[in-house]
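Co-fold these.
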Amino acid sequence: MQKVLTHWRHIVYSFCGLKLLTMLFPGWGTGIGGDFLSWTIGANLVLHSISTGKFPPLSTYGVYLGIEIILAPFYWLWTILPVEHPSVNLASLDQRTIPAISLIFLMKIPIFLFDIVTLILLMRIVRHLSNSEQKSIAAGLTWFVNPYNFYILYFFGAMDIIPLAIFLLALNFELDGRWFRCGIAAILSSLLRIFALAVYPFFIPLMKTKSSGTNLILGTAIPVALAIGVLYLSGDTLATVFNIPAQEFWLLEFLGFNVLGVQFVRWSPVLVIFQLYVVARFWRWDTNIIYLASVSLLALLLGATLYGGEAQHFLWVCPLLSACVAMRPEDSWIYSLTFFTALISPTVNPFYVWTPEPIVLDTFLAGAFYAMKAVYLVRLNFWNMRSRL
Amino acid sequence: MLVASGHVPIGPWIALYPPLYNQTASNLNQLQSWPLTASLGSDPSLARLSLLFRLPVFLLDLGTMIVLFWTGRRMRSSVEGRLMALVWFLNPFSFFGVELLGLPDVLCILIVALSFLLLVSERPFLSAVAIGLGAFVKLFPIFLLPPLLIYLHLNGVRRNILLAATFVGILGFLGYLGWVLPSGFEYLVIPTPVTQVILFVGGIANTVNPVTFGMFGFYCLQLIFAKKGGPLPMFLSVMLAYYLLAAPGPQYMIWLLPLIAVDIAFADRLKALVISALLAFGFSQWFLVSSAFLTPSSYSLLMFPLGGENLPSLSRMIGSLLDSHLVSIIILPLVSSATFAMLLAYSAEQIRLWFSVPQTQ
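Predicted complex below.
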């Protein structure tokens, strides 16, 4: 293990090469299928809207707008390449042609860049918390060479890595005591994907001074005010925001399922709020943001059905769990088993097709993954509890 | 309306509205056709009718406040007594439930509060009598009989008092069955404004009844783990467990309110925060789901109409907000889930106290 840690740079470079090769030679599910195609089409439309002098309206692009604006320049790069530019759809983009390969490569560059940003930020967080270079490297490696992360990012093409990296930036600012910047980064991440919003109340135990709360609120309010301004400039209103859940029905799955059978009670908010109570009542006061963010997101994922149950959304806790395992290596078996069950969960497609009887194994594999997330949540809670309740 | 309907079990509740009970048939007809859309100021007879309806529950509300004041005074000092009384009386939850909606449950709530006062006054048998009386009127006080017996047992109360307490408690329960069952077994599983569904029976065939399973298990755990703590956490945790398992609706959280008022007087900062959040979320949930705010029915306990024609702009705005998808698909689930989570947290707070020495006496 010591030897592995000593050569960590070589390992990272090797994996950078492997990831670039995966992007350059699409195939075996690494091409333009699934969500990746939707992102690419969205980036094309956003670019078209901007090129006609109009800011893309929220009413058209919904919750995808933020990430698609980030992706649009990479799509633009493809449009200026001296290659053919067929219309973007599954049929026209044969993965063995130059236009398809170049488009896939360019559209996956943000994933690659933000993957590296995540690596750097994660290592910085762990170094700051543990004061150990080795633990920092261990966290970085468990993130960067993790087969689950590799699959979700480079095969599936999950763009969640963009808001996730911004979220890690917020955690870095929190560790530096820069609450204003933390607020800006956290709300930017939340505006791109709603996950980071669940972590907000968990910042409270870390606020040692009154000014930290004020700065966090200010940092949060300014991007929100700007976003509302842009919204009105583009011809939309707040009603557009309120109508998004009606258009994007899956957004409501974020609330989780009604496991309790009680009218209107949804599992996700119940778990997150109860976790907040557990933190306030039972946790040590010297805990850190990694544990707090981990439990809040794990509670959220446990509560949600499809939204949290889908394997790609587990990406949100992956760097945090890497940090946890680096800081507490004695429980690495939980980490390994969690990621093993994540890899064989029914929503991870390549492994899914290998199973002989998918319908029979579906519930078993999904159940195992769900159980491991729950175990991790309980374990993290016990790590942080005061000795006397 | 219950009287006029003629067939629903009324039992002891008939005594609650003597002025109405003695009215002529024509007045009963007027009561039945009470136009919900009418404003109270438009017809003096309606105002009188409204007063007749609300006067008994208002007096019971005042009675509960007085009992809570004496409870606080008995437990520590009149400062705590005043706090408990005000937490009950000035609470939007009780104001909305008792004075505005006219929930008759306040009768049982008063009896439960009285039972607790008698218990802290070291009159255990009378406390059990109050529980029996409460169970005779409406079912829920019977859930407090096991924790009362466990508390008495843990505190070394003599066996004959324990037996007598058990007897009067069960007698009250049998009394309840005595006035409900003649109207039919269905009133054990169908709710009416004055009877309560017995969730321990019925359910899906060939499965375990979850409320029976949950409450039996809870009582056993209480018997195993509860030490010589105060009576409050034992009573409150049982009511919370029943509420969580049975989930009878936000308005019935008012059953817990007198005990919560007692608890808040001794709560630390975090627990006070949990209680405040619970009441705030619970009230919001009730506000949003209550039939009093159904729009566009024109009927509103906010004292201004939310539907109809020629409405002021504020009415239109509130009405459209309450009718919007935003409320039904996002705000209501979030508020309801938050209420449930706070109930869980508050239950954890109470169960923690099983293991500690009494702080409230």
